Amino acid sequence: MRFALIADEVRVPIDSDADIVSARQKGRELASHCGFPSTDLAVVATAISELARNIVRYAVHGKIILRVVDNHGKRGIEVVATDDGPGIPDVALAMQDGYSTSGSLGLGLPGTRRLMDEFEIKSDFGKGTTVTVRKWKR
Amino acid sequence: MQVPILKQGAYLIATVQSALTDEDLKQLRDALVGQVSKVRARGVIVDVTALDVIDSFATRTLRDVAHMIRLRGAETVIVGIQPEVAFSMVKLGLSLEGVATALDLEEGLAYLDRKTKGHNHEVRTHR
Lengths: 138, 127
Known about the structure:
The complex is a heterodimer. By secondary structure, chain A is α+β, with helices and mostly antiparallel strands. Chain A has helices at 17-33, 38-59, 91-94, 108-115; strands at 4-14, 62-71, 74-83, 118-124, 128-136. In chain A, helix 2 packs antiparallel against helix 4 (108-115). Chain B contains four helices and five strands, in the order ββαβαβαβα.
């Protein structure tokens, strides 16, 4: 890991749409505990909601891992959304606004990238997808 | 978590009380569209003050509600979107284009009164 981990990570299994709500509530709690301003709490919770929904919609099962991280004294929250689902055949395409294979608005991944400070995606076709995002405290 | 829908005069008011799952949102949509016809409502207010997240699915569902209700000949107004929720929605790339919004319940009622005024008057003259 590139950043020092502060405290224990929180793991939320994602298996149903009710888990989307609990994942974003846990993320919000952690960010609030971390001292993020209320605008950023909504931003982090919204990003988690989009990532968790992608798991339910495309992979069915997966998990969201929430961490408080430190980069030379700067605190941040890291969200890892990971699944063993079908993977994304064309990541570049999936990152385009309005592109969706499920009839959704197609804003989940590109929108999440806009919401957060850092965004990394790794997808192996047939093996699964892991999206890691971070928001740093200003 | 079911959303209570109250009838007030010619309007239906749905007040969201807590976080909604995708399933809850779909139920709310179906209940509102059904109720509008059943009680012959002229307007619908969806109060989302209690929502701390309005993500892409919630936005799409709220938009669907407004469009479906318009097809039934009634007006919808979404009230109480919190400032930080609005900020996140715009960053995510979401808009409620074509859907009326208002600051709060009071403003929402005023909007519906303006929008349905002619209609109510017309109904009265027929009696």
